[in-house]
## 1
Amino acid sequence: MAADTPHTDARLAAGHDKSLLRFITCGSVDDGKSTLIGRLLYETQALYDDQLGALAADSKRYGTQGDEPDFALLVDGLSAEREQGITIDVAYRFFATDRRKFIVADTPGHEQYTRNMVTGASTADLAVILVDARKGVLTQTRRHGILAALLGIRDIVLAVNKLDLAGWSQDTFAAIDRDYRAFAHSLGIERVTSIPLSALRGDNIAAPSTYTPWYEGPSLIEHLERVEAGRADAEATPLRLPVQWVNRPNADFRGFAGRLLGGRVRPGDRVRVLPSGRESSIERIVTFDGDLPEARAGQSVTLTLADEIDVSRGDVICAADDPAGLADQFEATLVWMADAPMLPGRPYLVKMGASTLGASFGHPKYRLDVNSLEHLAAKTLELNEIGVANLTLDRAVAFDPYAVNRDMGSFIVIDRYTNQTVGAGLLHFALRRSQNIHWQAVEVDKAARMRQHGHKPCVLWLTGLSGSGKSTIANIVERQLHARGAHTYLLDGDNVRHGLSRDLGFTDADRVENIRRIGEVARLMVDAGLIVITAFISPFRSERRLARGMVEDGEFIEIFVDTPLAVAEQRDPKGLYRKARRGELANFTGVDSPYEAPEMPELRIDTLADTPEDAATRIVELLVARGVLRSG
Amino acid sequence: MDAGRLTLRRRPFPQPPTRMPELSHLQRLEAESIDILREAVAEAERPVMLYSIGKDSSVLLHLARKAFFPARPPFPLLHIDTTWKFQAMYAFRARMAAEAGMELLVHINPDAQARGINPFTHGSALHTDLWKTQGLRQALDRHGFDVAFGGARRDEEASRAKERVFSFRSAQHRWDPKNQRPELWRLYNARKQPGESIRVFPLSNWTELDIWQYILREDIPIVPLYLADERPVVERDGQLLMVDDARFPLREGEVPQLRSVRFRTLGCYPLTGAIESNARTLPAVIDEMLRARTSERQGRLIDYDGSASMEKKKIEGYF
């Protein structure tokens, strides 16, 4: 117990040699998880008198334990959570014993909080999974195990809590242990340690409980102090060092700073730098405390190379004889963490190591039921859903599969507009085709076709609400261009929806795919030297940006046909607004699906001020001004 | 035990194969902090390190020098001064900036100065808001810093436990605890909207004990106030306050007494309580700390402004 164990100089000195264990605690709402963590802090004297005093006061105000201290309150930090009585986010806690320092990620067990558990598990070496002895292994207990296994945790402590309320029954404990072990085995996790506990009363937390004479295993703290979890893996892998920062204090020094994510390194070691593939050898391992003879996984160092080769931030220094893979297309597990669903084809950013890349995902191959591991069909991934999909990056990067090296095989997904972290992913393997795609070199190229046509190719991308006048304007533009001898093609809703995109509906995911196809067709036509005119609502900024990204800079001309919703609805040339308002049309832009107006279109047309003819003339004038067409 | 029923025998722990000793917890914490410092600088346009002269700042500065060695840390130090720090802190501040060879910016909120804001007449809440919270916003806006390193630790206080390493502030410098980005593995998303800024906390996973052990191991200079010495103090509202200069208004009957005291945290001297101690060396301080039964923030009067006091200050832009 906490009492007044005297500290000694030996304990102070031991601080230098302590190891560090990071673990995650998972449990359902009533399993007593916060109580367990509060108890661990208490038993290891991580709490001070004033904190205990505040706890006593808080316990009276918010507590659920009568006059007893409610340890759960120690851990529920934010005042909003205290009022709701639930933990809504990942919190990190710290305690230490003579042998080890511990960092605990405390994560909520609610179904809707998969994202928090994945976050906590991503840095954990071990998971402590709580079960209520009276309830045994529940669906959520299995879910916690599945998520821990998915994130690469190989050591599990099954904390069989509240055994005092089950009469300290050995049979109950043994049955739960047996159930869970069988389940963990099915996940490929063999290292399971079950411990009978009462977190509230402190039994088997720091010392053996007198209530469990039949249990001869370690107490929870004893086990956590001694277990060998996590570490061996990273050092056993080959050298990987993603370059975070190129250190150039003067012309004579060029060092590559980063953290070793795998293996070890010594001066003289041959290395290969990816993606360039250039090789050199390690000259020095530079630190503030002097050069090192060796560095290993986990250390932050600065390396210098024997040869002057080009290395920049994001490159990965690898063992020359066992380099990382290099690819731009992967199969990956994706955990979605945002309210807006993952849309296949939509452009996102992906951060891997020290690289940030343009990225998009294919249609999910399946969605994982995290309660049963069943594969379910899915068109998108919603908040807290986990699925498997192909990932395409805008350039090749060095990687290892997540199962081999967690830090080399993980990525986060960033929304290009909100900049929020919207997902996290684990790489399985590179797709073969990503290594084998080579563009067919052709002799008659875009420049040659441009000379023959007498104008530059481009895409005129008209966007606006249904009924804004896009098609009308597009037709007049094409007529005018044709009259000037330009080579044109008009892509509009009808000729696309009846053929190219006949299989697509109007959900957000289908709209994205539709725009992707149109963008690809437009790109091919631009390559063929045409002026392509498109007239689609194309309501999402990110899809328009995707289409813009498919052609070269300056070839995409976004034209915002700006008509107020009320006016468009009043015109309603096809009667669609009336249908949508009656509920006969779902996902109709402006009614029950948003229209994201362009922020910086190349041209904005105010249809209340300009006639369609005026608008078309302005577009043609813009083409002349931009040098697409010759004047006159 | 009944061997027929259950075999839960204590299994011996397997001996690990011979290999280099595991990195110690201080080595791992150091490596992680350096990683964070480098990553933030690589992604920042105008980084700055907030330097408060305390022990956490000392450790942070030391880590910054390590992270960018042999180059100097590629950012200036910024001290948000309240004019109410201990004299010994001002002396130490000048010395450290010179030693690190880094530019030191000092910001003093002109409004607070003009209004003569002080903790004695205006109370700790107003004093902290004007000098520190408003002062920090002014300085960040004036210099256009987009990334500011701070020495906050998650173990300091309950609302800090859920703060991210990369913590975003709106253009109005507000923190939204409900809308924080998840942080996974060692991947930090540093992308921000125009006007937003990021507070980066490389010491997030350190505890007070880690800080002291690291100071000892690395021989990091600290303000002498952390070590016990005879100092003039008065006892007021259960706190020992040091009479650091002539601005300290003594109440009737209060006579400064020389007592052997030290400080666990340093801030504005009228708001920082001392503790009685004879620990005149660093090992003695650590030994005392290991025996200590009160947390370091108890000496901080501003935390007592209300139950969810720190969370409220942070939402408003306090560091």
Note: Chain B touches chain A through 80 residues (CB under 8 Å).
## 2
Amino acid sequence: MTEAPDPRPPFGAIRRTLRRMVAAGKTAQFALAIMVLLTVLILLAPTRTIQLQARSLSAEVQIMGEPLQWNLDGAIVCAPSLDRDLTDPDCGAMASQLTLPDEDYEWVRGQQLRIDWTTDDLRITSLNEGSNWPANTVFILSHEDAQRNGALAFVGHVTIGQEIGAGSTGYVLEGQYTIYEQGLLARFLPSWSPDVTRQGEIRRGDAIRIVCKRNWISPCEDEEPLDEPRLFSNQVSGSITMDSDGEAGIHVVGLGVESNSMVEIAYAGRSEALLVRPNWIQRAAASSGLLALSLLFSLIAPLLLPFFEKRKG
Amino acid sequence: MTALAAGLLSVLTSLPAPSTAEEARLVTEPFNESVRPEANTGGARVVGLQFLGGSAEADLHALIPARWADAPHFCVRTNSSDGLYDSVNTYHMPQDLTAPVEVPHLRDSEHDGIITSLHPEGFGIRITRDDCDAVTDDTPNALGLWRDARPGDSFAIFVNSFDADRVVAYPQQGSGVECEPIGADISVAFDQRCVLPLPLDMTQFYVELQPIKNGRRGRIETILIDTR
């Protein structure tokens, strides 16, 4: 006759361990508490820095640092016109050339610009009114001039690529995002560099930007909330450069200001944008601090064993 | 005097849509609508022809001209700018076309919560003469009233620019108008609004929509609009 299986859940081992910990000496309890506290301090990362890098056919920038000048030597400036029959040889349909005083391509705070790469040229469209030009004015640069003029650097908000839809031409070709984090403990240790806690691919047709959510340590820089409650566009230091190898598209790099930020990935068809940030498991897997702590613990654990023995008498 | 006029105007615009309107009846039950988890990213160029309204939850009204009385049916298509909601329904032509026709869209819809939460510029209404299946490029359109909108001196055309740099609307009379981005956050099904003055001396007129991309003219779309 076989013995009937024990119907009770297999909590015996856990209960025994807990009982031993409670009964352990003060030294062992103190050591355990220190370990738990250090683990929490290593894994708590209320802020992070996000870096985006992509080759894209378009990017949208809102300038937040002023004044900012870009070297647009050789640009043809085209102002929009409502004259249906007008065709300018350089500006194309329904636009006329605008002559601006020298060195007057100065963007002001809040200026929204869309940068489009086409096979013929690089086009910078002023989506709102500028200091000397109306909305929808286009600055057209040949690829050679754009290359010669150098990087277009900015401080502001950036959206890389457009959601791909019928007729889209401004989509991302490829790219990556990288999330750097530093746990609370690492902030107090000199020369402790941040860990890469998550990285991923940006795929064709994604529209990417960095957003910020307020928390107790990170107020978010900007005042303009986005559509989702408590989400703000995260400020970025970025640059736009032409590809030196003659590949299609512009290279956009943006490094977000440290905050409680996330990568927002929108793709046409999705009802809600995807928000990417590391969870505590990914943080634990990438944490060099936690690795060091677990090594330390494995070394001192045998020394603590006698303190866990049941006290007698 | 100006302040008085503005005050009167604000009182008038805050009034609900006329309650004496005759209600349109569906030709085919049940109400045909769909909410999908993934957006419809294709679709038509002109998605809405309507007066811009406020934030009240008044149901849809159609400003159907008297000359449509000889048609047995009319069609109402609606789209949300995020491309997730749309409806296509054919209604019987009401007898009384002297007042705006009430289209019980919110009442018949199972997704009225979704519709009322949309931005006023995130819900396009296109009303056309005849059955929805019989609509062609030449079918005349009527204007819609949504939320607490009342017929004003200008109306909006919601347009899918299909990623054009600009869209310019040219009415039959008067100068062209540059279309602007809609106020709604997500603009997949349509992304531009062209606000045009309502001509006072014409009951039928056309509007031409000219997209421009990279300095090149796109295909012109012409829409015919009947007003009351």
Note: The CA atoms of residues 156 and 195 of chain B lie 4 Å apart.
